[in-house]
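Illustration 12: ABC transporter permease.
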Amino acid sequence: MRRRIFLGLLGLYFGLPLLAALLYSVATRWTDTPLPDGYTLDHWIGVFGKPDVTSALLRSLLLSAVVVVVDVLLVVPAAYWSVVHNPRIGSVVQTIAVIPFAVPWVVVGAGLQLVTASFAPGLFGTFWLLAAATAAIAFPFMYWAVEGSLIAAGAVRLSEAAATCGANPVQTLTRVIFPAIRGGVVSGALLVVATAMNEFALAKILVGAKFETLPIWSARQFVSRTLGDPNALAVVTIFTFGFLFALSALVVRLGRGRVSTIGRTLR
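Figure caption equivalent — predicted structure in token form:
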């Protein structure tokens, strides 16, 4: 009984703000009544027809895609080398993976801003600096997912079998290991996308209005009293939540499928 009460209160705590945003996204007018005075879908129909909204969404998707590619290319070989060829550096990599959570991302952005302005002014305020910074803070999600998949798939045994058959390290990684850990790579990639889509501090500090992502657009709508569109902001908020929730649900589904496959293999 207590558990149900606690879960119900927790659901209200997280659900009421989302419900309010959802109602506001379809409200024609909302004054001093508990519910909107009227409802319409015009906000949903028209918001993504606005050039600034579609541009911000496309920029966020582009940033997410680039960050995923960078993290996959860097993390998968590094995790493979750590697990299979040099397990002693595993603790070092795990320590490095904690750094993005220990250091506030505002501090990371400010530090990168100062360094690039002094030593690489050509990168200052560019998309590529933002992509590199986002890839750095998101890499732990990819690393932990890939490392867990390597251990669960028996990467050491697979590598030994591939070497016995005459495969070189590149062939082993691309043709043997990667197909075996594909689920972990996808799970990590989805978590990286969720991080990149929702990142505000780094984008605001490093690029600002030069590369307005969806979180920056949302913040501009929230603080502007004359140019802001609160109904459009509510629509984008619900859309972003639904998109990220779908990604999270897909991650959970992939994780369950991977556990089930491992269980069948062990039996």
